[in-house]
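Reopening this one. Same input as before:
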Amino acid sequence: MAGRPVRYDGAAKPVAGGLFERWREEGRLIPFCPEISGGLAVPRPPAEIVGGTGGDVLDGTARILTGTGADVTDEFLRGARLALETARRTGARTALLKEGSPSCGSRRIYDGTFTGAKRPGTGVTTALLQRAGITVFGESDLEAVQAHLTALEHASRLERGPHGAAEERDTHH
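Same output, byte for byte:
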């Protein structure tokens, strides 16, 4: 999404638009590809979740396979764990991920038949981030991301109080 060629086919699928560019300029974006970080190459064979969704992969009841049957589940799990570590280290509470991917799909993923068919579901990184309380959006949901960020920033201002510093609350009556 950030313009880096990390897709399985070696292509880049950058997200364009005012909001994305503004977030980039503000330093809000942390480019991260769980599949590359997990040890997969570019290019690489396409992979799909077989037998469930990303949550099922986390639970050990589904696998991620290539079209030739090679099991790449461990690489996807490693990348998901590294994505969560990065999110925690940077304090990220929101993630903007690539829809459809077996790692990053937030609403739909390929159905595991390698026919190009998609079905509702999440990728393994999305599932892990959501389990950790991080809100995940797909790249076509920029307006929803902005609304979410605005709500988080408003809540943060309320917590800090009118003078910008965290206020101590008197709990003694």
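So the earlier flakiness isn't reproducible anymore. For the record, The beta strands are 47-50, 63-66, 94-97, 108-110, 118-120, 135-138.
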